[in-house]
Design a protein that fits this description.
Structural class of chain A: mainly alpha
Structural class of chain B: alpha/beta
Strand content of chain B: 15-25%
Helix content of chain B: 25-40%
Order of helices and strands of chain A: HHHHHHHHHHHHHH
Strand content of chain A: under 5%
Number of strands of chain B: 17
Largest interface: A-B, 43 and 70 residues
Shape of chain B: globular
Helix content of chain A: 55-70%
Radius of gyration of chain B: 21 Å
Shape of chain A: globular
Number of strands of chain A: 0
Radius of gyration of chain A: 21 Å
Oligomer: heterodimer
Distance between the termini of chain B: 45 Å
Strand order of the largest sheet of chain B: 1-14-13-17-15-16
Largest sheet of chain B: 6 strands, mixed
Number of helices of chain B: 14
Chain lengths: ~300, ~450
């Protein structure tokens, strides 16, 4: 028998077909219904902001990696995800240099300077939004209503100030309300999240514990829990930001703690804080707590019994 | 019907369709066999024959005085060609082996004769017969069966699990044994239960083998003390600790053995081999081997004489269809990659799997994205994401503090990793380093 050169390595010798780019591509697919809803409600402006944001995120990453002499990894789709998520957190009427600056900050400062894919401890899109909000608050808070380009108060601002009219629950559910361009349609976001759950890309624990905490707490404080679930960036945050792999806990128990903590902070900011919305800061704060959460939620060793 | 399972694990494509419907056929008589003197966990054997000696089928040709050991018998009749080092398929290095040229006569040694009904022997006699027949666990670990059924006196054993899960993809040897020899499997279990003195037997089979479940239920119908259990098809259902968890909801403690929770586990093939000793008198000189993989022209379940070379069996299925990428002894999740096909089938060889070049190409690892799929998959509750990372950075003391030694090396973490990180491989190295360090420090 002829001799062949064969690979000799230790087991396992079998591997899943699901790779990082496939997971990231699934997230992009899951964001498409919400992107479509954004175009329906906020028109072509929304599309332009999304395109500019995605292109500049991908370009920033490629440029940084080229300049620093690293392998260019834009083929893994993760920059596309960040760019799209950042756009979702901006008003449709925002000047186009805002997504450019935001994407560059997200990709270079938050992600690449900390070591690139898998190394950042903050969600890049949310960290960029926080910086943009602090630097150019006027551009970020000038949200527009659906089907016109008039600046309108969001449901959360109405709840906070008591001035104006909250949209009906149905309008809030389908996304027919003022808000950042990708956050308004709970329906579209839930469809995307169900796709990710079915494909086993995300785990149910974080979104369910996050949304559940907000529901219970707002009800306890005598507010309308349903409007709080549907208003602002909660759906987007709970379904797509709090489920980001890199910046959230790896343990099952940790994922629940993350969701409960984010829910608690969100409600505290919304009801008692200076801002009408708290999702961004809630998730960023829990991102910071993530290594600690992982450390204190190590699962029980198989077969290990506590001595009584 | 209730299906039992364990927490964690992964769903792997099983590829069993290649051979699951193919009856066991006898492989052609090997012209020359190679019998390594170490085919089991424990002390290696000393050769009992020399170059030029005539040997008969079933003759004991290697033995050891050590308690944890199993004698080795010739699977052919013929002449000892030499006693020399030969590459070993499990140890990956040269091991002293007895090479025998077959005369093709199969002249049976005079000590090979049916032992008769096991119940007519005392427990100690049954154990001695099992030991003398050289029987070891045929699931892969090759632990001497006679030693297994002699647990420390203070351990109370109340359950014997016969493992027919066969959760490794590609392998169908156990499946075919249960289909074609269900009475022998049942008989072997009864012998093992008798040897240990337990009243409850469980024959456990994954639900992707409904025909085997049916056959085993049929023959076990009149055995009140033996239950046939349907397991969910999930890897690693057939791992000792996992099958005990699934069937009895007991957890073997870290560093412990099944007898610590009152259980014995054996493979269905081992039970059939035990039946062979009592019914036919034949020591362990043959076993069923699944020869499979997409790089081969055909695939087959063979009844093989131990000592037959892999290359001989690969020839018998028509050889390679495409250039082979990897030759594995065992299944793709825990099997051992070979440097060459010129290695012998040993007692623990459940399969010979030949992967294509494409299947063998693992791909380049990319950065870990902390997706935690490895955490969800780990059947012993470890955090491979961290342990693997520390192991890759050679920070073995941190890996140890995260219980790296609990790892059962099932391969789930590396299998599911979307970044293609060789987690199991890294943790295996860490375990070796940790054990080495402990040995040096004189700690146990």
């Amino acid at each position: 028998m002829a001799d062949y050169k064969v690979v000799v390595s230790s087991s396992p010798h079998l591997k899943t077909a699901v790779t990082t780019p496939i997971l990231m591509r699934d997230v992009v697919i899951a964001l498409l219904p919400a992107a479509l809803a954004a175009i329906v409600f906020f028109g072509m402006n929304a599309l332009t902001v999304m395109l500019v944001s995605v292109v500049s995120a991908v370009a920033s990453e490629a440029l940084f990696q080229k300049i620093t002499g690293k392998a260019v990894t834009i083929g893994d789709f993760s920059a596309v995800v960040t760019g799209l998520l950042l756009a979702f957190n901006l008003p449709a009427s925002v000047p186009l240099w805002i997504p450019v600056v935001g994407s560059a900050f997200a990709m270079i400062i938050v992600k690449q300077l900390f070591g690139g894919l898998g190394q950042n401890f903050l969600n890049p899109a949310l960290a960029a939004r926080a910086v943009l909000l602090a630097s150019w608050p006027a551009h970020l808070t000038a949200v527009v209503g659906p089907f016109d380009v008039k600046t309108t108060a969001t449901a959360l601002v109405v709840m906070k100030t008591g001035q104006g009219q909250i949209p009906s629950l149905f309008d809030m559910f389908i996304g027919n309300m003022a808000g950042q361009l990708g956050e308004t349609s709970a329906l579209a976001l839930i469809i995307g999240a169900l796709y990710l759950l079915a494909r086993k890309v995300i785990d149910w624990r974080t979104p369910v514990s996050y949304l559940g905490t907000v529901f219970v707490l707002t009800a306890l404080f005598g507010r309308d829990p349903l409007s709080h679930l549907l208003a602002g960036g909660l759906m987007l945050g709970a379904l797509f930001m709090a489920t980001d792999y890199v910046t959230t806990p790896v343990t099952k128990k940790g994922r629940i703690i993350f969701g409960v903590g984010a829910g608690l902070i969100t409600v505290l900011i919304r009801l008692y804080g200076g801002y009408p919305e708290g999702v961004t800061y809630a998730i960023l704060l829990m991102n910071i707590a993530t290594p600690l959460i992982d450390r204190f939620t190590v699962p029980r060793r198989f077969g290990y019994v506590k001595r009584s | 019907m209730e299906r039992r399972t364990f927490p964690g694990g992964v769903h792997v494509p099983h590829f069993k369709e290649l051979t699951e419907h193919k009856p066991i056929v006898r492989a052609r008589e090997p012209k020359r066999i190679v019998l390594p003197l170490s085919q089991h966990t424990g002390a290696p054997c000393e050769p009992l024959v020399r170059e030029g000696d005539q040997v008969k089928l079933g003759q004991k040709i290697g033995a050891s005085e050590a308690f944890v050991s199993a004698p080795i018998h010739s699977s052919v009749s013929g002449t000892v060609a030499s006693v020399q080092p030969f590459i070993h398929p499990a140890l990956g290095r040269q091991v002293l082996s007895i090479i025998i040229d077959s005369d093709g006569q199969d002249s049976v040694h005079e000590e090979v004769r049916p032992k008769g009904d096991y119940a007519s022997f005392s427990v100690d006699e049954v154990k001695r017969i099992i030991r003398e027949a050289g029987i070891v666990g045929l699931g892969g670990a090759a632990f001497p069966t006679a030693v297994k059924v002699s647990p420390p006196k203070e351990k109370r054993i109340d359950a014997y699990i016969l493992n027919g899960a066969e959760c490794e993809p590609f392998l169908t040897a156990d499946h075919r044994i249960m289909l074609e020899r269900p009475e022998d499997v049942l008989y072997g279990l009864k012998v093992l239960m008798y040897a240990v003195g337990v009243q409850n037997g469980y024959i456990c089979i994954e639900d992707n083998k409904p025909d085997a479940l049916r056959e085993m239920r049929k023959v076990a119908a009149n055995e009140p003390s033996i239950k046939v259990i349907e397991l969910k098809t999930r890897y690693p259902q057939g791992s000792e600790k996992q099958i005990i968890k699934a069937v009895l909801n007991r957890e073997v403690p870290p560093g412990g053995l099944p007898f610590d929770v009152g259980v014995m586990v054996s493979n269905v093939g081992t039970a059939a081999a035990v039946a062979d000793v009592f019914k036919k008198g034949l020591p362990l000189v043959e076993r069923v081997v699944t020869v499979t993989g997409h790089a081969l022209v055909d695939q087959q379940n063979f009844q093989v004489k131990i000592g037959t070379l892999f290359s001989d069996l690969i020839d018998q299925v028509g050889g390679y269809k495409v250039e082979p990428g990897k030759i594995i002894m065992g299944g793709p999740m825990m099997g051992i990659a070979q440097m060459t096909a010129e290695v012998p089938v040993i007692k623990g060889t459940s399969g010979i799997l030949v992967l294509t070049r494409q299947q063998a190409d693992w791909g380049e690892p990319s950065p870990c994205i902390k997706c935690a799929k490895c955490v969800d998959a780990c059947p012993v509750n470890l955090l491979p994401v961290f342990i693997g990372g520390y192991a890759e950075r050679e920070m073995y003391d941190v890996a140890e503090s995260m219980n790296a030694l609990d790892c059962i090396e099932c391969g789930c973490c590396a299998y599911v990793c979307p970044a293609r990180r060789p987690l199991t491989q890294a943790i295996r190295i860490a375990k070796w380093e940790i054990n080495e360090r402990r040995r040096k420090c004189g700690k146990k």
